[in-house]
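Incident log entry.

Two folding requests arrived from the same account within the same minute. Monitoring flagged them as a possible duplicate submission, but the sequences differ. Recording both here for audit purposes.

Request one:
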Amino acid sequence: MQAAVGVRRGPYLAALLLLSLFAWAPLLYPGYLQVHSGFLPLFNLADLAASSQKLTWLPTIGATPGLLRGEGPAVYWLALLLRPLAGDIGALKGLFALSFMAIGLGIFAWARHEFSPGLADVEGDSAQVEDSTANSQSLLAARAGLLAAAVAMLWPPLLAAVYVRGALAETLFMAVLAWALWGVSGVKAHATRARHVVSTGLLVMALFWTQAGLAIWATALLLAWALWPGAPRRNRGVAAAAVAAGALLGGGLFALLHRGQGLEGAALDVAGHAARFYQFFSPAWGFGVSTSGWQDGLPLQLGFAALGLAALTIVLGFGKASRSSRVPWPVLRFAAIAAPLLILLTTTLARPLWELDPLAAAVTYPWQLYALAGPLLALLAGGALAVERRLAVLPLWAATTALVVLSSYPYLAPRFTQVTPDAAAPAIFGANQVTLLTSDAQPATPAAPPEISPSQVMTVTAAWQALQPIDFDYNVFVHGLDAAGNRVAQWDGQPLRGDEPYPMTGWSVGEVVQGQYRLEVDPAAAPVRQVLVGLYNWQSGERLLMNGDDSATVEVGP
C-alpha cells in the first residue's frame, strides 16, 4: 500500500494506544488483582523460573493438569522475560496490559486491511481513480479500524477475563487470534508473499501453546475465513494450507512434548454452564463465578457498544438495495454469520452439543467461545462506518468512539489486594480450595490488658484466599509449639476477617480474607517457638491437607 494515497497511520496508532489506557489503567493500582485465579499465576511463574525443563513445563500449581482445558506455557514464558524488569507481579500485570494493546493493534490492522479495498485498485492503475477518492477510502479505513480496536479492547467479556477471572492465557489468546485473522486476510490478498504465509502459520502455532482447547475452535474459524469467498481460489487455498500447517505443527508439537498430561483434565458439566439469552444484555456486573443454572454469578454481557454497532452494520449494510464496491462485503458477511453462530453455541440451545465428549473436552465453559466471537463483533462494529460513510465524519466518529469508552466504565473497577505471598512456597489446602497467602506470628502489641497479664500473648496474622466456592464452614486452628514440639497454646474457631468471624461459605472466589488470631501462653510454659496454622472439618475433626501435610508452619518473629 503506497503512502502517497494513504492516510498516515502514526496519529491513529497513537490514538489507539491512548484509548488502550482506559482498558489497562486499573492495572496501575498498587498490589495485585483479587480475581478467580488468585495468585496461582504468580506461583506458576515462580515454578517455571525454578524448573530446568522449561520447554516441557506446564502451569499445574493449583490446577488440574490437562492439555486442552489447561493453560499453555507461552504466556508464562513471556512473563519470565518481563520478570527481571518488573518483578513477579509487575510481569503479570504487564502482560495483561500488553495483551490489551496487542488486541487493539491486531484488530486495527485487520479492519484497516479489510476496509481499504479501493487502495489496491489505486496501486494497480492510479490513473483510473482520483487521489481524493483514495485518500477518502484510506481515511475511512483508519477510522473504522480505530473504532473496531476500541470496541475490542473495551469489550466486557475481555474485561471480565482480566479483572474478574484473571485468565492470563486466555487474554493472550485473544491477542494472538486478532493477529491470526489479520494474517489470513494478508495471505488471501497476497498469497505469493512468503512473510504473510509464514507469519500466519506461526500465529496459529502460538495459539496451541497459549490455550490448546480454544485453539482447536480457533483453527476451525480461521479455516472457514481462509476458504470464504472474496479472494482468488488459489489464494484461499494457500491461506487454508498456512492455517492447517500451523495447527498441525503447533498442536502436534505441543501434544508430543506434553504427552504425559491428560487430554481432558477433570470431568466437568460443561453443558450445565451454558449461557441464557438475558445474560447477553444484563447491565449487572459482579465478581461471582460461573455456576450451573440460570443464576450464573459471572458477568456474561456482550456489551452495548459491540452489539449495538454490529447490529447497526447489519441493518444498514444488508438492508441496502445497492452494493458499493468500496464496502468489504465478504468479510462483513463472514462476521455477520460466524459471530452469531459462535454466540449461539454458548447458549442453552446448544446444550445437546456440549453433552458430546469430543466437543466438551476442549473447553471448561461454553462461554469461552466469546474469545472467538470478540474480533468478529469488533470488525462488524467498525463496519458501520463503511456501510454508512456519514458516520466517518469527524464529529460523529469521535462521538461514537467516545460512546464505546463511556459504555465500558462500569466494568473498570476491579478489586485489589496489597497482600504479597511467597511465590516460591504456595500453601494450597484441600483439592485446590483455599490458599494461605501469608502468615506471621509476633508478640502482641500494645501490651496485653491487665486481665490477662498472667499469660504471654502472641498475635498470629493470616491471609487466606478462596480458589473455588467453598461449601462448608471449615474451622481454623492455630497451635503454638515449644522448642520440643509440645503444644503450649491454641486457638480454634471460624476464620476471622480483622477481629470478626467470617465463615468460609460467605467467601467469594478470589477474595483475600485477612485476620488476627490471638494465642495466650501460660508464663509457666516454655516459650512458643513455632506456630502451626491449618483448616479442619469441625464435625469430623478431619484436617484439610496442604501439599501433603495437614498444616502450614509459621516461624515466630522476635
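Request two (distinct sequence, not a duplicate):
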Amino acid sequence: MHFVLTLHSHLPYVLNHGRWPHGSDWLCEATLDTYLPLLETLLDLEEREVSAPATLGITPVLANQLASPGFQEEMDAFFRQRLQACEEAPASLQETGDEELLPLVGFWRDHFQGLRSFWERLDRDLVGAFRRLEERGRLEIISSAATHGFLPLLGREESVRLQLTVGAAEHRRLFGKDPRGCWVPECAYRPGGVWDPMPGVSRAEHRQGLETFLHDAGFRYFFIDTHMAEAGESLGWYGDVPHGVERFDAAWEGETRQDRPEPIRSAYQAYLVGDQGTGAGVTAFVREPLASMQVWSRHHGYPGDEAYLEFHKIRWPGGLKFWRVTGPDVDLGGKGHYDPVRAGVRASGHATHFSGFLGHIQRSQNVGPSGVAMAPFDTELFGHWWFEGVAFLGELFRRLPYRDGVVPVTASQHLDSFPPQHLLLPLEGSWGANGDFSMWLNDGTRWTWERLWRLEETFWETATSVPDSGEHRRILAHAGRQLLLAQSSDWQFMISTGAVPDYGEKRFNLHCDDAEGLLEALKPGAPAQVLAAAREKIPELEERDDLFPDILSCMAQVLERA
C-alpha cells in the first residue's frame, strides 16, 4: 500500500494589512511554528538519507507572501519580539511567584535562537529552500487556486479559470516548474450540470464540472473528501447521470438507504474523473478516514495527549506558553506545567504507533500493493496547533522503512506506478462541516455572495472592452487582484465560525470596494474625478497588495477561452 502524506499550506493575504492579531504576525507565527521547523526536519532527514516523500501544497497567495522582502523584514522583527519576551520573562515570573516556570523560559530562548540561526542560514528564503528540496527529488510541491477561492460557488466560469490559471502561473514563476497537482480549496467539488446555488439571486445556467477547469489549467490530480468516494448520503444533485459510467451509491434513486447495495468504491483507490474518451480526465485522490482522524482529532487523536503543549493557554505579557494539555476536560486554570522531554518521548511513541496503524489499515481494509492511503492535513496543524507535530512527522518517516506493506510516496509517484480507475462524481461536496458548502454559503454569508457575483459580472464585462492603453491596463490589473482577494474562501469561513467575523467582513468589503472603484474608472465616459481617484489609489494598492505580477497575461488566456 502506498502512503501519501499531503500537507496543505495556506494563509490569506495578510502582509501589509497590519500586524496583530490577524496581520503579518499571523504569517510570522505560522513560519516560526510550522514552516521553519518542517523545513529543518526535511533537511535533517535528507542529511540522514531517510526518505520523506511528502506532497507539499503551498497556495500561490501564501507563496507570494513568503517570497516578499516585506515578509523577511516582518520575520526579523518577529524573532526580535519573541527573544525579547524571553529576556523579560524571568523578572515577570519572579514578581508573580512563578519561578518554577523559569526552566521553560530557557527552553523557549534556545528554541527561538536555533530557528533564527536556521532562518539566516537559509538566507531568509523559504520558497527557495523548498524549491531546492523538490529539485533534489525529496518532495513534491503542488499548487492551488490563486487566493483559495471557493471555486464551485464563483459566479462566472471566467473567475474559476482565472483562479486556476494564476495558480499555475505563479507556481511556475516561484517554483520553476508546472504543478501537476492542485489542492482545490476546501476540497470543494461540483460536477457538471445546472448551477443555481441561490435561486432568485444566482443566474441559473449549465456549468462544466470542476475537473474540466483543472484539466484546462494543466493540473492532473486533485483531492476529495471521503464521503465523496464512498456510499454516503447525497449532498447535492446536478441532473441526469450519463450512461456507461459506474455511479456512487448516493446517486441511486427510488430506493431506501437500507435497500441500497454495499459500497463498491473504496477510499484506498485513486479515480479518474472526467471524459476518458477525450483524455480530459483528472485524477481524484480520496481522503483516507481512519489515519486522518488519528492524527487530526484533538479529542480522538494524538494532539490531545495530556503531555503535549497546550495551544490555548498563553502567558501575558510576552505570549509564551508554559502549560500542557493535561486532560481533555481540564479547564485552562487547571493545566499542568509543560515538560518538553516528556512531550518528545510521547511524539516518538505516537510515530511508532501510527506507522503500525498504517500497517493495520493495510491489512484490515485489504488494501493491495496498488492501493493508496492519502492522508491530507493543514500543514499548520504540525508545529502551530500541535507543537510536537513536526517532530512526529520526522519520527514517522524514520520508522516507515521498517513497516512491511506500507510505502511512502508522493502523489505523482503513485500515479506513475498505478493508473486510476474511471469514475463519475455526481455529487457536490467539501471537507467542511456537514461535507457540503454550508460553511461558506449560509444565512450569515449570503450577502457576500450577492455582492461578489455582481462584482464578477461587472469585472468580466469590463475586461472585454478596456482600451489598450498603459494606464487602463494597469488599473485593470489591480482590479483583477482585488477581485481575486475578495474571492478568498477565508472571509466566509471567518464569518461562519464566529471566531473573527469582523475581520472577515472588513477584508471582504475592502477588496470589493477597491475593485468596484477601479472598475468605475474603466467604464466608457467615466467622469474625470473617478479616473483621478483610480490614479491616486494605484500607488497604495501597489504597496499594500503586491502579488501576482503576471495577472494581465493570465486574464488574456482566460478571455481567449471565453
